[in-house]
Amino acid sequence: MSILHELEEAKRAKEAADRRVEELLGRAKEEGLEQIRTIVKELGLTANDLSKLVSGPTKTRQTRKAAAFWYRNPVDASKVWKGAGPKPAWLKELSNEAQEACKVTVG
User: Which of helix, strand or coil describes residue 66?
Assistant: First the structure.
């Protein structure tokens, strides 16, 4: 028997084994689902109960709390810093007392 003939024979055997594995896997899944259906029915489980099994803890997006106050530029009132992001240059240049004086209560 030549090596090529042996190789072809091995490929056919592998394909047959792969088909058998897929068949058995499908049957195992069906049996597993049937067992799950029985348990669900016996215990009266709901879809909500089952969803806890497949989905991990859900992360809810946290909303940013609005700033209690803003800083308004004493020279140009159109310039306002709401506390998000880096401090603007005009605010950094002011002394601590001047920064406190620029605070505007929101709400």
Answer: coil
pTM of the model: 0.43
Residues listed for the chain: 107
Residues 84, 51 contacting (CB under 8 angstroms): no
* pLDDT tens by residue, 90-107: 888 888 888 888 888 776
Domain spans of the chain?
3-54, 69-105
- If phi > 0 it is left, if psi is from -120 to 50 it is alpha, else beta; for residue 49 that is alpha
Q: Bridge-partner residues for 88, per DSSP?
A: none
Angle at 99 between CA 96 and CA 104, to 5 degrees: 145
Q: How many CA atoms lie within 13 A of 91 on its CB side?
A: 19
* d(C-alpha 62, C-alpha 64), whole Å: 6
Distance between CA atoms of residues 102 and 75, nearest Å: 10
Q: Which two structure tokens, joined as six digits, stand for 73?
A: 């530029």
